[in-house]
Amino acid sequence: MVSIKVTVMAITLVTLCLLDTNHAVNHKCCPRYMTVKIPFSAIKGYSVQTVREMCPFDAIIFHTKKGKACTDPALDWVMDYVERIKTRAQKVHETSQHLTRPHKGR
Amino acid sequence: MNFSVEELMNESVPTEMTTFDPNFPYEVIEPCTFDNHHSVQIVVHSIICILGFVGNSLVIVTYAFYKRTKSMTDVYLLNVAVADLLFVLALPLIVYNELSSWSMGRVACKLLRGSYSVNLYSGMLLLACISTDRYIAIVQARRSFRLRSLSYSRVICVIVWVFAILVSIPTFCFYEWYEPSHSNEYYMFGDEDIDMDEPSQYVCEFKFPSSEMAQKGKVAVPSTQLAVGFFLPLLVMIFCYTAIIVTLLKAKNFQRHKAVRVVLAVVVVFIACHLPYNLVLLYDTVTMFEHFECEDLKMVQTVMMVMQSIAYLHCCLNPVLYAFVGVKFRNHFRRICQDLWCLGKRYIAPRRFSRVTSEFYVSTIRRSVDVSSENGSSFTM
User: Fold this and answer.
1) Whether B290 and B363 share a structural domain
2) Residues B105, B212: one domain?
3) Residue B26 counted as domain residue
């Protein structure tokens, strides 16, 4: 009696888990920082890794043509790049706002 | 003119030139991707779940229907079984959620992480209580009558559970269900090969309001687990069981060798299951904020996973090591098997076994069991 229930439960469990392995995700943290500077033109964007969450330290992850690059937010060039990306983003924001304003007015 | 432009170019270029050279040789340190051992993990955890569920349910069922908790050890054993059972029930849900990017949401995240912690602490501390109880019964036999009362043990169990809940409050508070900030991409130039449409990936991990708190909390929580959830019970057990073995070896009891063997088994299994995991956890906690090569991180992670599974295995072994090793407990268990068999027969051939007779049968068994186990502690092996 008990063993049948247990077996059914176990099989359900295993199937459920196996079905979901496709969605399995890795949440990657930076293991260390890059020691060299990346050329700005190689950068497509960035994201922020923070010690307040699951990762062991803060980092700026630049998305480059070669993949994601872990950099030290304490370095000047890193924050300079972030500023430059932000400025570009701001410009895009402004132009798009400019374009949509008359549309919104109606 | 030409010359000066060349000069100028060469002066200012090093960075600017490389900017336009896609083949600039720099080594990219990428976020570390861990290898998937999911299938192995699923199989191992399923086995642990099934074994732990069966073993601990049997202990609880035995206590619930046949052996009303009579001694102090009984109360502890029942509580250990409850803690282990809750642990084993939470485990598949945790595994399922880890694989499905925590699809069950915030409440499940908090509850599962919290209950995991509560059961870990209560289970480990209760094992320490059992060793203390046995120490008082065997080594301090004269005081044992006064110190080993049923109500006393119930109070201790309540204290242990309340303490386990209190110690787990940080876990409950600081585990959050969220999308990690580093999986959000802030701005992308150009439009080539942008993989923006990744599904939202939630985690149930630590999240602190400030960096300072994170630095402290990420060390404090595993440190507490190491201290209260492992080293404290370990020290208590080593002290108590060493004293017990010494006393047993002095005694002139024909069963003492068996008793010593059981005690050794309890200690050795505890150490074998929990020491490796806790050592890796200690290493991980000490080197928490250090920078590593990805390969090293992967190795630590894999070792940690294996050791953790071994530690989980302990809750399947507890019923065997603590409950089923006792002669009386085994007798009760045998009765259950007989009764279940009879019940089964009744279902298969309902006409031959009327309800009245089988109930009568059970009640006589209960009465006979009660009489037989009236005197004596559970530390009979």
Assistant:
1) no
2) yes
3) no
Answer yes or no: is pLDDT of B369 > 80: no
Per the CB < 8 Å rule, is B22 touching A42?
yes
Give yes or no: residues B119 and B148 share one domain: yes
Chain B CB contacts of A19 under 8 Å are none
B120: in domain: yes
With an 8 Å Cβ cutoff, are B24 and A41 in contact?
Answer: no
Chain A interface includes B206 (CB < 8 A): yes
Pull the structure tokens for residue B134. Answer: 């046995």
- Which domain, by its residues, includes B62? 33-182+200-325
- Of residues B194 and B256, more confidence is placed in B256
Q: Do A31 and B211 touch (CB under 8 A)?
A: no
Number of domains in chain B: 2
Task: For chain B, say whether A99 makes contact (Cβ under 8 Å).
Answer: no
> Looking at residues A87-106, what average pLDDT do you find?
71
Residue B192 lies in a domain: no
B224 with B143, same domain: the answer is: yes
Residues of B within 8 A of A50 (CB-CB) are 181-182, 211
What chain A holds in terms of domains, given with CATH numbers, is 25-105 (2.40.50.40)
pLDDT at residue B84 in the model? 94
Do B129 and B264 belong together in one domain?
Answer: yes
A88 CB neighbours in chain B (<8 A) are 187, 189
Q: Determine the distance in angstroms separating the CA of A27 from the nearest CA of chain B, rounded to an integer.
A: 7
Are B365 and B281 within one domain? no
Q: For B140-190, what is each residue's pLDDT tens digit? A: 888 777 777 778 888 999 999 999 999 999 999 999 999 888 877 776 665
What is the average pLDDT across B196-210?
Answer: 81
pLDDT over 50 at B7, yes or no: no
Over range A40-68, report the average pLDDT: 90
Are B207 and B298 within one domain? yes
> What percent of chain B lies above the pLDDT cut of 90?
45
CB within 8 Å: B182 and A31: no
pLDDT above 70 covers what percent of chain A?
68
Q: What is the ipTM of this complex?
A: 0.72
Please tell me whether residues B250 and B355 are part of one structural domain.
no
